[in-house]
Amino acid sequence: MTCPPPFPPLSDPPDPPPERPWLYQVVCLETADAHPAPHPLSPRFRNRTVACRWLGNYLAYSADNLEHDGALAQAAAFRGAAESARANGWADIGTVHYQVLPIPAW
After folding, report:
1. What pLDDT is recorded for position 67?
2. What's the structural domain count of the chain?
3. Does the residue 12 lie in any domain?
4. Contact between 63 and 72 (Cβ < 8 Å)
5. Scanning 8, 22, 71, 100, which has the fewest C-beta atoms within 10 Å of its C-beta?
6. pTM of the predicted model, to two decimals?
């Protein structure tokens, strides 16, 4: 009876390195600008679903504040965009585009 070797044979290829993890961040872009650049709104999240939920909550909270200030038309636009943001990870309100973007974790 022979014992198996304690280490794998040298001919086996090494395991591939794990993929680099991604983080997600909510950004907004002013689409009316000649050169729109993303402006970060949120902290970085490890989970896209959490980032989408954060964006939806951000827009819903903004809608509540607009209602409190009496801007009912704007509040309705933000409230409608909140549901889309939670489901899809992006929303457009006027000339502002909100989106969850993946960023590499360095």
Report:
1. 96
2. 1
3. no
4. no
5. 8
6. 0.76
DSSP code, position 99: E
Phi-psi region of 80 (alpha: psi -120 to 50; beta: other; left: phi over 0): alpha
Using one digit for the tens of pLDDT, what is the confidence trace for 33-78? Answer: 888 888 999 999 999 999 999 999 999 999 999 999 999 999 999 9
Could you tell me which of 64, 34, 65, 53 has the C-alpha nearest to residue 91? Answer: 53
DSSP output for 3-66: PPPSS--TTSPPPPPPPPPEEEEEEEEETTSSS---EE-S--BS-HHHHHHHHHHHHHHHHHHH
Distance set, CA 80 to CA 37, 73, 89 (Å): 24, 11, 13
Question: What is the chain's mean pLDDT, rounded?
Answer: 84
| Residue 74 lies in domain | 22-104
